[in-house]
Amino acid sequence: MKKFLILAVCFLTSTFCFSQEFTKTVSSKVQLIIIRDGHGAFQIEGHNKQEIIIKATGIQHNSKGKGLTPLYSGGSDTGIGLTMNETGEVIEFTGLPRQGNQSYHILVPENINIKAEWRNHDSQKLLRISNLKSSLEVHRINGKMDISNITGPLVLYSMHGETKIRFSEINHNRPISISSYNADIEIELEAATKASLEMSSGRGEIYTDFEIKRTPSNKKTEEERIITGTINGGGVKIILQSYAGNFYLKKY
Fold first, then answer.
1. Alpha-carbon distance 86 to 96, whole Å?
2. Mean pLDDT, all residues of the chain
3. What pLDDT, on the 0 to 100 scale, is given for residue 145?
4. What is the C-alpha separation between 199 and 178, in angstroms, rounded?
């Protein structure tokens, strides 16, 4: 019934909907893949192939434009509600401002750096990211996020929207930075993870089941409560900052 209703809506609005797949081979010179301003639900997943595979469902197309080439300022049309632009070491996908029930499953090479940037306030559907062995940067205004099986480094900012992050083994020395305005963020680390922590939440709370060896901080101000310490003797630097959200730092 739900599929029938979607098809009916598409028909009445001079559009047609269907599932589609887009594939692109990634050259060895590419160092970064950017995905920004997507509309709909997104799942970004690393795999061990040197190609990008995007499986899209619920995509709407204007039937009046059939046989014509759409033009966009952000790059070439992929036919699945995203434009693509490739410049040197960077491949960038940008979402088009289309309404509907579209969803995307994007497979990317697991060892290439990923940047996901959602600057649009109206996109509130779930964003999932998983299985990456590379640097990840995420910036989102609204909507929930579920990030799992990543090694980092990670730079993440969530303004509004509950976020869950589960790291696999962390085997690098580059800092991890996680911040929010008023979003609650749950972070899971292996129990044996060695890390040096710097944590603050002006109007929120910080909870953990790790045994933290506290160290004095020289950054304390009247407006911030900064907690510093180490777990398992110290290691990779993890910075947690929030204005009004809570942090839940858990071990598994």
1. 17
2. 86
3. 96
4. 10
Q: How far apart are CA 155 and CA 65, in angstroms?
A: 40
Structure tokens belonging to residue 225: 């409560």
Please indicate, yes or no, if residue 129 is contained in any of the structural domains.
yes
Range of the domain at 42: 13-150
Task: Specify the pLDDT at position 79.
Answer: 81
Residue 121: how many other CB atoms lie within 10 Å: 11
Question: Model confidence over 194-209: pLDDT tens digits?
Answer: 999 999 988 999 999 9
| Closest by CA position to 92, among listed 112, 68, 63 | 112
Tokens at 36, concatenated: 């920004």
**Below-70 pLDDT ranges, the chain:** 1-19, 61, 69-70, 72-75, 97-100, 121-123, 217-224
Distance CA 102, CA 124 (A): 13
pTM of the entire predicted model:
0.87
* 195 occurs within a structural domain: no
**Can you name the residues that pair with 179 across neighbouring β-strands?**
157, 241
User: Do residues 55 and 104 touch, judged by C-beta distance below 8 A?
Assistant: yes
Copy the structure tokens of residue 232: 């398992």
* Structure letter (DSSP) for residue 27: P
In the chain, the number of structural domains is 1
